[in-house]
């Protein structure tokens, strides 16, 4: 009868208790993904990018979407912020690959 093989596929109460504890432990290790651990900072800085100038530009020039590039490391402005810079006027000369600073603009 099918009852003879059922025990091979069944779990005990102890088995399921241990399984739940292990799942809770994995959830705790993974976290919510919102917190940045100190051990993650070097990798995040090295892997992420900053906004840089694509070429040398003189003071007084108006920047556009072609004025920028995005390069590592992430020590400057986040690339998601570049659209807020379009149309701004440079108050100083800048150089290719220089990290963009909000203070560069009038």
Describe the protein:
The chain has 106 residues and is α+β, with helices and mostly antiparallel strands. The chain has 3 helices and 2 strands; from the N terminus they run H-H-H-E-E. Strands 1-2 form a two-stranded antiparallel ribbon. The model has no long low-confidence stretch (mean pLDDT 88).
Strand content: 5-15%
Strand arrangement in the largest pleated sheet: 1-2
H/I helix tally: 3
Distance between the termini: 85 Å
Helix content: 25-40%
Short characterization:
The protein is built from 3 helices and 2 strands; from the N terminus they run αααββ. By secondary structure, it is α+β, with helices and mostly antiparallel strands. Strands 1-2 form a two-stranded antiparallel sheet.
Comma- or semicolon-separated keywords:
rod-shaped, single chain, 3 helices, 106 residues, two-stranded antiparallel ribbon
Any chance you could write out the topology, listing elements then pairs?
Blueprint: H1 3-9, H2 13-30, H3 41-47, E1 50-53, E2 68-71
Antiparallel strand pairs: 1-2
């Amino acid at each position: 009868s099918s009852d003879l093989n059922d025990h091979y596929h069944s779990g005990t109460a102890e088995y399921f208790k241990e399984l739940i504890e292990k799942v809770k432990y994995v959830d705790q290790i993974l976290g919510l993904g919102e917190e940045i651990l100190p051990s993650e900072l070097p990798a995040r800085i090295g892997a992420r990018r900053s906004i840089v100038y694509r070429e040398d530009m003189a003071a007084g020039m108006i920047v556009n979407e072609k004025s920028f590039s995005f390069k590592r490391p992430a020590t400057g402005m986040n690339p998601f912020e570049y659209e807020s810079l379009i149309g701004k006027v440079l108050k100083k000369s800048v150089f290719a690959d220089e990290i963009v600073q909000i203070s560069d603009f009038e």
